[in-house]
Queue: 3 jobs
Job 1
Amino acid sequence: MENFLVSVPQAAALWVLMLVGVVLLGRALARRTRPAEVPLSEAESDARRYAGEVTVAAGRAAATAERRRADWVIAQQELDAAWLAFDAADRAARQAAKALAYPLMSRRRKPGENAERQRYLHHAASAACRNREISIAQLNDVYAHRGWNPRLHPVVQESALKRAVREHRWAEYQKALATERNAWQEAEFAAGALRSLRLEAAAAVTRAGAGQPAGDEQWWAETWTTAELPAAA
C-alpha cells in the first residue's frame, strides 16, 4: 500500500508532463503549417482603398437613382391628372358652345342691364380663378376687358369662360409634360451612372482580391438598369 501511494503522484505528474508536451508540439506544428502573412504592397493597398471608395460611391448613386425615380413617378402622376383636367374642361367647353347654336332674342335692353352683365362676368371669372380654373393673368384680362366684352349675353360669356378654362388646363398640361420629360431624363441619367459605378466597383473589388468573383459583375450591373424606366409619353 505504501508503494502504491508513492507511485500515484509520480504517475500523475508523468501524465501531466506528457499532455503539456503534446500541446506544445501541436502549437509548434500549427505555426509551421500556417502561411506567413505577406504585407500588402503599395499598389495592392491603393487597389483596396479604391475599391472601397467606388463601392461607397455606388451606394450613394443608388440612393440618388431611387430619388430620381420617385420624382419621375410623381411627375407622371401629375401629368395624368393634368390631362384628365384638360379633358374635362374640353368637354365642358364643347357643351357650352352648343348653346350658342341657338340664336338669342334681340330686344331692347333694360336700364342697368349692361352693368348687371358686367358684374356677372366679373363674379364668374373671380370664382373660376379661386377654383384655379383660370390664371391670374386671365382674370386681369377679364377685369381690363382685354378680349372680353362685358355687354354680351351671360350665355355667351359663360361659353367664353369655358374656353378660357380649357386654355388654362391645356397650358398646365404642357407644363406638366415638360416636367415629366425632364424628370424621366434625370432618372435615366442617374440609372446609367449607377450601372457604370456598380460595374466599376465589381471590377475594382475583383482586382483588389477581396473575394468578389469577376462573374458577379453582371449581377452588379443588372440590379438597376435604364430599361426599368419606360419611355416618356
Note: Residues 211-233 have pLDDT under 50 and may be disordered.
Job 2
Amino acid sequence: MLTKTTLKVALLWHGDREARSTATLEKNRFGGVAQALRQVGIEAEPAVYADEFADEVRDQLLKVHGVLVWVNPIEQGRDRSILNAMLLQVADAGVLVSAHPEVILKMGTKEVLFRTRDMGWGCDIHLYATAQELRAQLPRRLAEGKPRVLKQYRGNGGNGVWKVEGHPNDSALVRVRHALRGSVEEDISLDEFLARCEGYFGGAGRLIDQAYQERLTEGMVRCYLVRDRVVGFGHQLINALFLPPLGAAPGDAPQPGPRLYYPATKPEFQLLKTKMEEEWLPAMQQVLDIDTTALPVIWDADFLYGPKAATGEDTYVLCEINVSSVYPFPDEALEPLARETAMRLMKGVSTCAG
C-alpha cells in the first residue's frame, strides 16, 4: 500500500540545458517549497523545462505523482503552448498538475476581468475581440476625458499593459505609457498606437480595456490563496503607469517599490479576506464553472484600491489573477501549500488503488 512517504512531486521551472543538468533544490529559490513538502512526507525533485527538451521533461513527469509549475505566460519571448500541451498529456496519465492548463485558461488570463465584471470586484471594463473593434470603440471612450488601461490577453511583468489617454494640448495625439519595466511616456498619434496594438490580436488574442484607478499611487494588494483559502498578502507600489516624480524628465521610467509580505491575519486586509473567501471566489467559480477541487494549489489575485465607500472603508478592483507562476509568496503559505498538495496526491492515489 502506498503511503505519503512514497509520493514524489516535481518542481518545474524554466531554464536551459545547463540549468537542467545542474539543478538541485538546495539553495534554490524553491528550496522552501521542497522542505515544506518533505515535512508532510513528499519527496521533491527539480524539473527544469524548455521547449527544446519538452519530451525529456514529459518522461520525467510521468514517473512522479505530481508537478507544481512555475513558468510565466510569456517566457523569453515564448508562450506556454508547447508546455501546456505536454502538461495535458501528463495530467491525462493521472499525474497531478497544478495549475491545470484548462483552469489557467479560465481564470489566469486578462479576460477574467471582463467575464467577472458584474461581481463586486469589477469596474468599467470592455473587451475588444478584434483590432477593428478597438479602432471603433477606443476613441469614443477616450473622448470621455479619462485615462484607460489596455491589457493583452496573456502576459506578465507589465508586458502588453498600456495606460492611454487623450493629449491635454493636441487632439491629434494620445499620451501612452507601457507598463513594461524601462518604458517611458510617449505622445503619439492614435493611429500609431492602434497599429502597435494589432499584434495583440494574433491567434486567440484580444485586449481588455479597464478604467484607470486613481488610487493606483497607494499601491496594489496581492491576495495569496491555497485552493479556496487566503494564506497571505503582499503590498507593493506598482508605479509603472505613474506620472514621473516632480523634477524628473517627462519620459523617466519610475521603478517599482518593494513588495512587502504579510500573514493572512493582517488586520488591514481582513475585509478583503472575507470578501474574497465568502463572496467573490464562490461567485467567480460559478461564472467560470470551476469546481473547488480544481482550483490551483497556489494562486493569487491582485487588487487595486477603488473609490472609498461612503462609510470610509476601502473598496477593491481586480487587476489580474496570477496562476501560471506564483512566486515569491509569504512564508506562511508554505505549510498550507504542502498540505494541500499532499491531500490531492493521496486522493489521487486512493482513486487509483480503488
Note: Residues 334-353 form the longest helix (20 residues).
Job 3
Amino acid sequence: MDNLLKYILYIMMSLVVLWLFFAFVIANSKFLKPDLALELPENLPVLYSVEPAEIGKKLTDTIIYTFEASTIDQWVYFDFSRGSVVSDVSSLENIMNWDIALRRTKIVSNGGDTNEPGKVAVAKMDTTDFDSVLEVPENAKFLKDVKPPNKIDSQNDSFENWHSYKPSYHRIKPFDNVYLIKTAEGNYAKMQILNYYCKDGEEEIKGCYTIKYVYQGNGTKRFVNKTTPVKKTG
C-alpha cells in the first residue's frame, strides 16, 4: 500500500512539473505571441537623430520619428514646431520651446500644473484611424496637466493609460490612440505612438519612442491643404 501511494505521488509530481514546463514554454514562445512580432529586435525601428529646424507656417507631411527617452531621471523634450527632440530646454519650467516631455513611460505637456505659464493641452480622440483625423473637431476635449495629491509627478489625463503592459514577458505596447496637441505656439498637431522600443546597432533600447505626427504651423485646425475637402470627425 505504501508503495502504491508513493507511486501515485510520483505520478502527480511528474504531471505538475510537466505542466509548469509547458506553461513556461508557451509564455516565452515568440511563435505564440503574434501581437509582439513587430517588437522582436530584428524588426524594431532604428534610432536616429534629427536636427531641430523651424517648420514655419506650413503643414508638414506625415512624419515618423524615433527618439530615445530611456533615462529614468531625465526628461526628453519634443517640439513640434521644430520637428525634433530639442536640447535648449533646461527644465519643465521653460515656457516655450517644447510641447511634450517624455521619460520612460511618463509623458507630460507644457501646461497646467507641469508649467502654469505653458499653453500646451492634449486631447485623446475616440478613433485609432490616424488618416481619418483631418481637422480638430469642435468637441475635442483638450486637457492640461494636473498634479494628483498622491503622486510625485504631474500628469495629463489624455496620456494616462497610453499603453498596455504584459507582465508575463515584460513588454509595453502602445494603444493606437490618436492624440491632438495644442502646441506652445497655439498651433495644432496630431500624433500617434507606434512603439516603445528601438534598436541601436544590435542593442534593443526600451524607452525609445516612435511617433507618427502631422503638424499644422499656420494656426488653423486643418491637417489637410486648403484644396482638400474635409470630412467631419465629430
Note: Residues 68 and 208 are 4 Å apart (CA to CA).
